[in-house]
Design a protein that fits this description.
Number of helices of chain B: 10
CATH superfamily of chain A: YVTN repeat-like/Quinoprotein amine dehydrogenase
Shape of chain A: globular
Strand content of chain B: 25-35%
Number of domains of chain A: 1
Oligomer: heterodimer
Strand content of chain A: over 45%
CATH topology of the largest domain in chain B: Rossmann fold
CATH class of chain A: Mainly Beta
Largest interface: A-B, 30 and 25 residues
Shape of chain B: globular
CATH class of the largest domain in chain B: Alpha Beta
Number of strands of chain B: 14
Distance between the termini of chain B: 34 Å
Largest sheet of chain B: 7 strands, parallel
Structural class of chain B: alpha/beta
Strand order of the largest sheet of chain A: 14-15-16-17-18-19
CATH architecture of chain A: 7 Propeller
Strand order of the largest sheet of chain B: 3-2-6-1-7-8-9
Chain lengths: ~350, ~325
């Protein structure tokens, strides 16, 4: 990775904005997913737009309300909406309705190798590959988030009071165990090495479990709810939003217990609202509440460059293409920047 | 709770099963108003609701992990309100229908506790639909019915055609004893102008100043300990801010479970501004609200609605806050 300079944000446009495409759509951007070198973006009017390099975005009228969640199954996009529909959409725009729950929202969707998952209320609906009828996994309270581990053998379901960890045996039977911690758990993720499980909570903190011995602890000190977090660089760090700095907790060795996070400050002192790892690098993209986006190296905080100047709308999504050539930034005000990361000579 | 006009007002509709919540909801939705409303209903709804934006919710009450024992919030509301705020088309209002046996406190507390909810939406008012025929029995049998009256900004006393005048008076007295500050509207079949129940801004601190007549000292008889009652106090002597804060925060910390709602306008020694506050259980929203109007008497008034108020030495506590 080549860091450009240690510039302060300026009112004029960045080189990334100058060479990319900007769209002022006025529709809240809710989420995005990278599929190869394309990025599919979900919006607050139910549409999904697909961005490919060098091409105009295509608009797919997917849901009648908000695209609440987005994921992928191979080359297909999966979406859940507040119209109660769980959809599989091909990159060509062909829509396949997998389920329809009417006035019940489809809050979360995910997939692993053809196994499709959506959640509505307190139930996980799991379609095994090529099965028409889903398996229903019921929970005591509404589901806050859902995630497969890297091998697709475990499914973590966060909820009020902790996480239900579903495990698939070799005859494809699912059994569950509980990871308990008081309070309401929202988004859940496994570390990329599957050693840790992390949830964000209704309180301004995160909780984590080390899975081999089920020890757990929390990460606190945030000024706001932590809505965006991700593991970076083979799980060396967990990078998190929810503060005026990007907070990066060390997850190598035995994890962050008793250790201090690295805090990356940004000019303007705005709330970090979205974080996205730079693939295969010890670096992150950080989106702020004023719409600005930075790229920082975690252990060299002086190496920070500005990607997008402010739009006054909080960043709600950042997606990087698989070949790391392009980045898409979206915000709650419906502004999108779709740009190449490298100069021609940098490639 | 901020006051920007970007916040979508949320009206909470409570009331016992059979009181007429669904009738009112359908009336609101079918009236020609050209507004876009989202309605959050619970799964035990009495009958169908006719609106294109109906969201089914399970009432999920979450305890906050913040060491505050009575601080509960509605988890489903946090999820649904934040989802609704991502919509491309802007909503004029959101109406939350609660189940007949719901305690309104977690709903109200959600707007105090969750920053995302408070940033984008505001609690407009709690409207309680009450059945004029059955309310008295319900109040005796179910503490939830008392809470629904205690939290109400407006009580829609419905089905008045089914009780005689003396019966109506008895029910009204009962309501006033619990909550002398709620506006009581008489209806049959929930026939009420929408302007009387929507966009009231009842939780805005400024509105507390507008409804000053509410602060008349209320008489009260000694009730059963479990009954919800109200007490108000007035002082012409300015209060000592430090003493008041000390007393009041300790009071809410220790008795917050029994204190359902509080409101007040306070005159502090050495301060030119009027201080206005309101609270739900242990949670409080307070702010200086500009100078005292010229030529108007300065005094402090506060009101409590709750259980076991007699045991809290409120009068003595308040008297001790007066500046020496």
């Amino acid at each position: 990775m080549k860091a450009d300079s240690n510039k302060f944000p300026e009112l004029n446009k960045t080189k990334f904005e100058n060479r990319g495409k900007e769209f002022k759509l006025g529709i809240p951007v809710t989420n995005a997913i990278t599929i190869g070198n394309s990025v599919a973006v979900g919006f607050g009017d139910g549409t999904v737009r697909i961005f490919r390099s060098g091409q105009i975005s295509e608009v797919i009228k997917a849901h009648s309300g908000v695209v609440l969640s987005i994921s992928k199954d191979g080359e297909d996009i999966l979406t859940g909406g507040d119209d109660g529909r769980f959809l599989k959409i091909s990159l060509d725009g062909e829509i396949n309705e997998i389920a329809n729950f009417g006035s019940r929202w489809v809050d979360h969707v995910t997939a692993y190798n053809g196994s499709l998952v959506c959640t509505s209320g307190n139930i996980v609906y799991l379609w095994m590959p090529n099965k028409k009828e889903p398996k229903l996994l019921e929970h005591e309270s509404t589901i806050g988030g859902v995630a497969f581990d890297s091998k697709g053998r475990r499914l973590a379901v966060s909820r009020y009071g902790g996480v239900t960890l579903w495990k698939k045996d070799y005859s494809n039977k699912w059994s569950s165990s509980n990871l308990i911690w008081k309070g309401s758990h929202n988004k859940v993720i496994f570390s990329t090495d599957d050693r840790f499980l992390v949830t964000s909570m209704q309180e301004n903190q995160l909780h984590f479990w080390r899975l081999k011995d089920k020890t757990d602890s929390f990460m606190s000190g945030y000024g706001a709810k932590v809505k965006s977090f991700a593991f970076v660089y083979d799980s060396k760090f967990l990078v998190t939003s929810g503060s005026n700095e990007a907070i990066c907790w060390p997850f190598d060795g035995n994890g962050p217990e008793g250790r201090k996070p690295i805090c990356l400050p940004y000019v303007g002192n705005k709330l970090v609202t979205f974080v996205e790892p730079f693939p295969n690098e010890n670096a992150i993209f950080t989106g702020l509440s004023d719409g600005s986006v930075f790229l920082s190296e975690i252990e060299k905080s002086t190496n920070t460059i500005i990607i997008r100047s402010f739009t006054e709308s909080e960043v709600t999504t950042i997606a990087v293409t698989e070949d790391c050539s392009s980045i898409l930034i979206g915000d709650i005000g419906g502004n999108i920047l779709w740009t190449s990361i490298w100069d021609e000579e940098e490639k | 709770m901020g006051e920007t006009n970007k916040q979508v007002p949320v009206t909470v509709l409570t009331g016992f099963l059979g009181a007429g919540k669904t009738t009112l909801l359908n009336r609101i939705l079918t009236e020609q108003h050209g507004k876009k409303y989202a309605v959050i209903v619970n799964e035990f709804g009495e009958q169908g609701i006719d609106n294109d934006l109906v969201v089914d919710a399970d009432e999920e009450v979450f305890e906050m992990n913040n060491g505050c024992i009575c601080c509960t919030v509605r988890g489903d509301l946090i999820r649904i309100l934040s989802g609704l705020m991502k919509r491309a088309d802007k909503l004029d209002a959101i109406i939350v229908e609660t189940t007949g046996l719901a305690d309104p406190a977690p709903v109200a507390q959600t707007f105090f506790v969750d920053q995302d909810v408070a940033d984008r939406t505001k609690l407009d008012a709690i409207v309680t639909v009450a059945d004029a025929v059955h309310l008295s029995t319900q109040l005796s049998d179910h503490h939830e019915a008392e809470e629904q009256i205690a939290f109400a900004d407006v009580v829609l006393l419905n089905k008045i055609d089914l009780v005689d005048e003396s019966g109506l008076e008895v029910v009204k007295e009962r309501i006033k004893k619990i909550n002398p500050f709620a506006k009581i509207i008489h209806t049959t079949k929930c026939g009420v102008s929408l302007s009387e129940i929507l966009n009231l801004d009842a939780f805005n601190l400024k509105r507390i100043l507008d409804t000053e007549p509410d602060f008349l000292t209320s008489d009260h008889d000694h009730e059963h300990d479990d009954d919800v009652t109200s007490l108000s106090f007035v002082s012409d002597t300015p209060l000592d801010m430090e003493k008041f804060q000390d007393w009041f925060s300790k009071l809410l910390q220790t008795k917050g479970q029994d204190i359902l709602r509080t409101k007040g306008i306070l005159d502090f020694t050495g301060e030119n501004d009027r201080y206005v506050f309101q609270g739900v259980h242990m949670l409080m929203d307070a702010s200086p609200m500009g100078k005292w109007p010229e030529g108007k008497e300065r005094n402090s008034r506060l009101v409590f609605i709750g259980r076991n108020l007699e045991s809290m030495n409120l009068k003595e506590g308040f008297e001790n806050c007066k500046s020496a």
